[in-house]
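Deviations from the work plan: none for this task. Representative record:
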Amino acid sequence: MATHRDSGGFVGAVGAQEGRPLPGIQPPRRRAKVSLHERIFERDVLLGWGTIAAVLVAWEMVARSGFLPRWAFPSLFEVVGAFLELTLDKTLFVHTGASLFRQITGVILAGVAGVILGVATGISPILRAALLPLCRLLYPIPGIAWIPIAILWMGIGFKSTVFVVFFTGLWPTLFNTQAGILSLEAQYTDVAKVYLADRSFYIRHVVLPGALPFILTGLRLTYGVGWRVIVGAEIISSITGLGFMLDDARWQLRPDILVLGMAMIALIGWTFDRYLFGTLERATLQKWGMQSRSV
Amino acid sequence: MAGEGKVVVRNLTKIFEGDHGTVVALDRVSATVREGEFLCILGPSGCGKTTLLRIVGGLEKPTSGEISISGQAISGPGPERAFVFQDYALFPWKTVLENIEFGLHARSIPLEERRRVSTQLVEVMRLGGFENAYPHALSGGMQQRVSIARALAVDPGVLLMDEPFGALDAQTRFAMQRELLRVWEIYHKTLLFVTHSIDEALYLADRIIMMSPRPGRIVEEIRVKIPRPRSLTGEEFMRLKAHMLEVLAKAETPAAAD
């Protein structure tokens, strides 16, 4: 009998069939290098992409079914057509570039200010007492609500959009940085005192790296809320940018451009979150053993 | 003044005011540590031994009383003292070398000089091959070696150690005790070592101060004259141990009565 051929001598006794050992009992051969962890990861990636593909297929089926009017529900092929059209006449680059430039400017300003204010209120009880009530009062104002006053002060365009991104994005970084500092282990501060670190050394070598898990989470959120609000701001107060492109497409009855704009927003947001922040976390927190897995 | 001791503690009292009333952590504690002496402070938890060490280290302020180092009154941390913590307190974001150099870096010593000191200490503390590793990759014993190296790097006259081997398993702990004696014999720092282990104190110290809790007081002082390396089962060792157990038992009686 060929039963024992692949079984290492004992599997056959459990009842493997002709030349086909039972799955799971067979000692690993070809996939010996792939760990269980990696296999679960592969499975999860397949599941994730599978769901996205299913939604796209469902969309296309609805679009072709004729239940919904074409001017409201474009086929994916029309969206791809719009992508080619706007790429060729370069308007897609102009709008994406305008949005990205405003977003990056606003996020950098909000991130820097958020970290500075977070550190200040985190290490100084006096500044915390002085600034926190004001921050708590401003925090509930939605980003969109800053737009009218931004237009009043700065007119339509770059400055007012950046202003809105700044005031929306400031809070997550500020509050997270502060929380990270307040939860810093007291022993780190003791070590800094024992070895006579001055305030600036203490902030640079102890406080900032120690609070980095929180700071990165804050910046991630700042980026996210900034990107969410920028479209709203551009719809109201701009003549360029992806938000303007969406609104303009609605007026022109071009649902394909509308969906294309939304897809661009999703892809850019996802790319930054995964590659920029994921890379930062791997280069710091994971290397230092302060975080076990990337999110 | 300078002749009377490297570290002099006079009438030190520390009272903690908490939500649940006041606690007298230290009650008029006085002690003198000679230059180059290995002193163990021994006692059960809550006897104020760590508080005493933290006050000497400048990490806490006494309610009353005074401390002087080499004849100078102190009121905060200073360059002549270094502290080794029970949980190592290494920075996860710094490599072994960078952790060792922390005190030098904070004092703006140039990189070249820092590297010279840390490389030498890596050798003394037997950390070779781990210079660029991050603490999370090291065992507890290795982490504590880094922490001791960080303390030695600033070349302190007085080394303060707060139950440094308390979190280690028994074998690593014994190995680290021998390592510490080896290093102490090289540098001959004045050493204040807090522990709750009688064996550890008897194995290491020139002199042992025994404390009792509530309020924290010194109840006994023992000079250990057994030559090193000491045997944990020697006659004198066992005699002192029996005596110390008796002292601790007696010290606990009044606390049990209230």
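Chain B has two domains: 2-80+157-226, 83-155.
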